[in-house]
């Protein structure tokens, strides 16, 4: 089953989840990793990622990417959010990531971040028909999304992330009353403006996602029950409880905060601004309760991947062999006639299997023949004239995962010689190859030329072939209709076979009811 690693490079934390997509297009999380790297510390005042933060981030990303690859995860979807998005040296940081890991990370917009967060919630919580408001407080931004189980009505990304607010407004601990008033005014103003264009009275519930909300719920639950929170998802916390935690954090010294049961020490300076945002949102919407969801952007990325790669995931399920799957994917991208390509491949393989005593090749050469047969007509994408040559260049320059450069060269050459001229010393690309590879191309091309001729009309008239070897090679062709065109084409393509094996070919027709014609 398809495996996907999601790397989320956030302002506060770097997360990775390892997922496996199931046959029914759901997914299973196999492992999670998190490091509160604080990549965005200071970035919203200096507009730059600090050297220390970049070093921390690069080390964490290197370790996580290595871990994923060691566990067999070839697909890694990496995204970066507000800290990298807003830093003047964010591009430089991502260049370092690419150089050190080979991973290209997408920097997503605030709007895309909101869409992915809601997608994660939408597929994890039974949302009602009336609108739900989802809020996600990260380190740099706050995403506010209003939607229901079917659609998003309203989405905004606000510059109200917890690290940003801490850097801009809370410059000492505990903060002064003036700092708190200034912060409250800024948060209230942005939230009211963001929600003004939407009729918020219609909102039935508020759902909060991600680490800030989760840690706040843990603190409140411990205060409420004296016991640790057993299940974060769908836990409810009240506006009164949130306001009480906010007051305690605002009045506490750093030491007192660290002693608060349930508070994550790495959020000692950011939980206060996050809690204030939650409390003000509930005040603005006149709601009394917040529901916690433990799914957000990373799960949204997985669902988005499943939606975008539905056909590819089905292909992985139907065709476990990655090499054949990639060959078929290239054929489909080039809009070949799949029926013709697969029929020619089947005929070529039957010819290969029945002439083994002549050529002496094994399974790997058989695979190369099959792959070349599937791709032999992709050159039509460029032009029908010289399409055999176009096929060669398309195969040579395609990113075929799972193949060595030598294998790609062999498959490209076999496809190139499926029609027209046979390999000669005038062809520099061919003569530059080792002698052993030249023989492989000669033999496999000879078989492919005949197989392609036997489906000249592309109606699969030739159903099967039976080969008898002697001083001449007799190919009995079983047909389901008139096949004169196919026999004419196959005879015209027999030149390379007769040259390679130094014996003539005879074609004998037989119908499906075994009546010789």
From TrEMBL:
Superkingdom of origin organism: Bacteria
Keyword Isomerase: no
Gene3D superfamilies: 3.30.420.40, Exopolyphosphatase. Domain 2 (3.30.420.150), Hypothetical protein af1432 (1.10.3210.10)
GO molecular function, a single term: exopolyphosphatase activity
Keyword Hydrolase assigned: yes
Enzyme category, top tier: hydrolase
Ppx/GppA phosphatase C-terminal domain ranges (all copies): 322-461
Keywords: Hydrolase
The enzyme's E.C. designation: 3.6.1.11
Database matches in Pfam families: Ppx-GppA (PF02541), Ppx-GppA_III (PF21447)
Sequence ranges assigned to domain Ppx/GppA phosphatase N-terminal in this UniProt record: 27-309
This protein's name: Putative Exopolyphosphatase
């Amino acid at each position: 089953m398809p495996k996907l690693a999601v790397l989320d490079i956030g302002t506060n934390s770097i997360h990775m989840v390892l997922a496996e997509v199931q046959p029914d297009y759901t997914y299973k999380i196999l492992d999670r990793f998190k490091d509160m790297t604080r990549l965005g510390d200071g970035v919203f005042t200096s507009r730059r990622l600090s050297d220390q933060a970049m070093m921390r981030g690069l080390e964490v990303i290197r370790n996580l990417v290595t871990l994923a690859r060691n566990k067999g995860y070839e697909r890694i979807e990496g995204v970066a959010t507000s800290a990298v998005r807003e830093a003047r040296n964010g591009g430089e940081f991502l260049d370092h990531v690419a150089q050190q890991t080979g991973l290209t990370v997408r920097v997503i917009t605030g709007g895309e971040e909101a869409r992915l967060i809601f997608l994660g919630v939408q597929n994890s919580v039974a949302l009602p028909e009336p609108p739900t408001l989802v809020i996600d407080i990260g380190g740099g931004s706050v995403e506010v999304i209003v939607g229901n189980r079917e659609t998003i009505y309203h989405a905004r990304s606000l510059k109200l992330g917890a690290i940003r607010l801490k850097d801009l407004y809370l410059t000492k601990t505990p903060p002064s009353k003036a700092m708190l008033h200034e912060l409250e005014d800024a948060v209230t103003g942005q939230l009211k403006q963001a929600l003004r264009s939407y009729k918020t009275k219609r909102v039935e519930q508020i759902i909060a996602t991600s680490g800030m909300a989760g840690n706040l719920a843990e603190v409140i639950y411990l205060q409420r029950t004296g016991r640790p929170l057993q299940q974060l998802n769908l836990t409810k916390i009240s506006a009164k409880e949130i306001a009480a935690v906010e007051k305690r954090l605002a009045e506490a010294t750093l030491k007192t905060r660290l002693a608060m049961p349930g508070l994550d020490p790495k959020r000692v300076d950011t939980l206060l601004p996050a809690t204030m945002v939650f409390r003000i949102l509930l005040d603005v919407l006149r709601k009394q309760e917040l529901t916690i969801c433990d799914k957000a952007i990373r799960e949204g990325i997985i669902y988005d991947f499943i939606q975008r790669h539905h056909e590819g995931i089905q292909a992985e399920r139907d065709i476990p062999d990655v090499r054949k799957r990639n060959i078929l994917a290239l054929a489909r991208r080039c809009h070949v006639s799949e029926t013709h390509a697969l029929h020619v491949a089947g005929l070529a393989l039957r010819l290969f299997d029945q002439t083994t005593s002549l050529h002496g090749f094994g399974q790997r050469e058989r695979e190369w023949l099959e792959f070349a047969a599937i791709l032999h007509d992709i050159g039509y994408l460029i032009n029908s004239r010289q399409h055999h040559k176009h096929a060669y260049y398309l195969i040579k320059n395609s990113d075929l995962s799972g193949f060595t450069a030598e294998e790609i060269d062999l498959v490209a050459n076999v496809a190139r010689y499926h029609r027209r001229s046979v390999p000669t010393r005038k062809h520099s690309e061919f003569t530059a190859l080792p002698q052993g590879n030249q023989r492989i191309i000669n033999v496999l091309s000879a078989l492919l030329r005949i197989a392609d001729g036997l489906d000249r009309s592309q109606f699969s008239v030739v159903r099967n072939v039976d080969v008898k070897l002697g001083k001449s090679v007799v190919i009995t062709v079983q047909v389901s209709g008139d096949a004169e065109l196919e026999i004419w084409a196959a005879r015209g393509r027999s030149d390379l076979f007769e040259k390679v094996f130094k014996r003539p070919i005879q074609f004998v027709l037989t119908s499906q009811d075994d009546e010789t014609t």
